[in-house]
Each structure stands twice: as C-alpha cells, then as structure tokens.
Amino acid sequence: MAITPTSDITSGTIDLIKHGLHTARTVNADQELYNQIKNSGDEKTQLKKVATEFESIFITKMLQEMDKTVDKEENGLFGNDNKYEEAFKGIVFQQMGRDLANNPRTTFGFADQIYRQMEHLVK
Predict the structure, then answer these.
(1) How far apart are CA 37 and CA 24, in angstroms?
(2) What one-character DSSP code corresponds to residue 78?
(3) Residues in Cβ contact with 9 at an 8 Å cutoff, skipping those fewer than 6 apart
(4) pTM, whole model, 2 decimals?
C-alpha cells in the first residue's frame, strides 16, 4: 500500500516509524563506535578508548539529569514548541560529554582511573 498525501496516518504510526529510525541510527552509531575501538590497535589502546567513552557517557548522562533541575522559561531557544530543543540538547550534551572526557584539562579522571585499574588484565 502506497502512502499518499490523502492517506490516513495516525500519530501512533508516525511515532512507531520515528522510533524505528532512531533505533536504527543508535544501533549503527554504536556499531560504528565499536568498530573504531576494535580496529584501534592493541588491547591497551582499546581499553583506553573504552574507558574514555565510558567517561563521556557518564558525563552526558550527568548533564541530562542536571538539565532536568533547571527552571524552564515559556519561550525556549526554539520558541514554544520544544520538541526540537529537546532533540538538539541531547546532541549537544553528548558532544560536551565527549569533549570533556577527551580533553586532558577538563576530564573528570574516570577514564584514567578505569584504565589504571584494568590495564594489568590486557596484553
């Protein structure tokens, strides 16, 4: 059945399609990250990259939780309709987490601690 502009599409159907696309992107992004780490060299290099990625995920989650505590004004960055703002914030928080974890001056130190505790387990 072809979908035409006059077809009835429920919001549930659209939400299901959006969820499927988001899940596909997430799986592909996660698989791409896994492949980058796996192909990065020896096991110690891989451990360092995994530890840094763990720290970036932790920081991202922390920023997302902190954002929930902030008072919101009626007009956000994108006006009253904040569905775009919420999607944009997720991307910004993720990039901030990666930037903070990868910069030696701003890292929280989790990656280094994880690496030092686990390096004796890899070759």
Answers:
(1) 20
(2) T
(3) 3
(4) 0.65
